[in-house]
Specification:
heterodimer, A: 215 residues, Alpha-Beta Plaits, 2 domains, 5-stranded antiparallel beta sheet, 9 helices, 16% strand, B: Alpha-Beta Plaits, two-stranded antiparallel sheet, 7 helices, 15 strands, 19% helix
């Protein structure tokens, strides 16, 4: 449930972060949904996502768009990540005119998503899901600055130790910031990692951490 | 996940990829003098497979052995590439609100409530999952039929899980279901109490159908009881076909084209 919901951050760094999902419904429109899902993916691709993928095949940083498209079967759930509000409005306008027929969901700041829907002529959000945050032994969590990066992968496939290791690599000149973020994007199989936001957050992290040795 | 002692050179490159933290230890090879390899703590490993997929091992020492029941539940809930047959959805949850526009799973007057134990990035034992499930069961909380955790219950009326999985661990596991909106305060209070009894963290989420008037019915409740809720949400656009008829008078639906 909700692997794109619990992204942590503030308005400024979440305002250009959108995950658009296409999801067929079991027992309703799942049978014969493959071409609809491929159509949805193709429309999204046209509008320039920063990441895109399906959790079984991978994302555009560890495979190709053709590979992702060819592996779509009935029931495949696909996700496309966007880093720009204008792209979302253009995408929604096209999806309104050219409905693929499967359910479409956007994770993002709800006020902005609602504005985008209105600009595209789609009216109100149909069903909404809120995160009520993290409860329990929160002292086990890494620092909020790291959580902002790691929670971009809802399946927790980007570890906090990896973020720290990459900070160390960049500081030692072993990788560029872009290469470090690419490594994180590859770990998040579904394609939910927003590369643009990731680079911005990573640059903010760099001066905060001096990692001599992890182990 | 395991590392083959005959191949592993203890280079530590896989260490930072593990979402469960430092769960490896060094061992001396019994037959090759001077050879050191790493052993992955099987108790703490959730078989999520990220270290293997990262393709980081220079000698291909990492491998995922076949996991008999009950250990099998670890990869079912932790490896996003594995589909749970009961939900027919890859990953840990269900279609939940993603298809509410066509399924009508959450009707007006109902609230979806999900508690994802172990998230973000801490992991959870099923004994903790049971604590939360059992706290909700008596309060009119209806467990989602197709959710993996519901399938692992020995008694759905009490939320009791099967004994054999209680000491298994997952990267995260979701207690998923719905309740009547009037029960939401009691449900959230029970979750708050359960939070003091578990050895992990959990992320909480609530789902509601947005009525044509646009006033989100759960917001006043969250505000009245002082619960923080996120500015970023997951939003179903209502574009799925065929649309589920939520109201007798469908003209009231403002979002339909």
């Amino acid at each position: 449930m909700t692997h794109s919901l619990h992204r942590r951050g503030e308005w400024d760094d979440l305002k250009d972060d959108f995950v658009v999902l296409g999801c067929p419904a079991t027992g309703i429109n799942k049978k014969g949904s493959a071409p609809k899902t491929q159509k949805f993916l193709s429309i999204c691709y046209k509008h320039g996502p920063i990441n895109l993928g399906d959790m079984k095949t991978g994302n555009i940083y560890n495979t190709t768009m053709d590979d992702i498209l060819s592996h779509v079967t009935d029931g495949t759930i696909v996700q496309c990540t966007f880093d720009n509000r204008e792209k979302i409005v253009a995408l929604l306008k096209e999806l309104k005119e050219n409905r693929p027929g499967i359910s479409i969901i956007i994770s993002g700041i709800s006020d902005i998503v609602q504005q985008c829907m209105e600009e595209a002529g789609l009216g109100r959000i149909h069903t909404i899901e809120y995160s009520l945050g993290t409860w329990g032994r929160t002292e086990l969590l890494p620092e909020f600055e790291i959580l902002k990066t790691t929670t971009m992968c809802g399946h927790a496939m980007i570890s906090s130790d990896l973020v720290k290791k990459l900070v160390r690599d960049v500081k030692r000149g072993r990788r560029t910031v872009e290469e470090a973020c690419l490594e994180m994007a590859k770990c998040c199989t579904c394609g939910n990692y927003n590369m643009t936001r990731g680079i911005k957050l990573f640059k903010e992290l760099l001066p905060l951490y001096m990692v001599h040795s992890l182990y | 996940m395991k590392a083959d002692p005959d191949k592993c050179i203890a280079c530590k490159r896989c260490f930072p990829y593990c979402p469960m933290g430092r769960i490896q230890r060094f061992k001396r090879h019994e037959k090759i003098p001077g050879r050191v390899y790493i052993e992955i703590d099987q108790e703490r490993c959730t078989d999520c497979g990220v270290c293997l997929r990262a393709n980081i091992c220079p000698v291909k020492a990492l491998y995922q052995p076949e996991t008999p029941w009950p250990r099998e539940v670890r990869s079912i809930l932790s490896n996003p590439l594995i589909e749970f047959k009961g939900s027919q959805v890859p990953g840990r949850g269900t279609e939940e609100m993603k298809t509410n526009d066509v399924s009508g799973r959450y009707r007006p007057g109902e609230v979806g409530v999900g508690i994802e134990l172990g998230r973000p990035g801490v992991g959870a034992y099923f004994r903790d999952v049971e604590v939360v499930a059992m706290a909700l069961a008596p309060l009119g909380y209806e467990f989602a039929e197709e959710n993996p955790v519901t399938h692992f219950m020995a008694d759905r009326k009490t939320g009791k899980l099967r004994e054999d999985i209680l000491n298994e661990k997952a990267t995260s596991a979701i207690v998923e279901g719905k309740c009547k909106i009037e029960n939401l305060p009691a449900i959230l209070e029970a979750i708050k109490k359960a939070a003091t009894k578990v050895e992990t963290v959990f992320s909480v989420e609530v789902i509601t159908k947005v009525p044509p008037e646009g006033e989100i019915p759960i917001k006043p409740i969250l505000e009245q009881y002082g619960y923080w809720y996120s500015i970023n949400t997951k939003n179903n656009l209502g574009l799925g076909e065929p649309a589920f008829k939520f109201y007798d008078d469908e003209e009231r639906r403002s979002h339909d084209s």
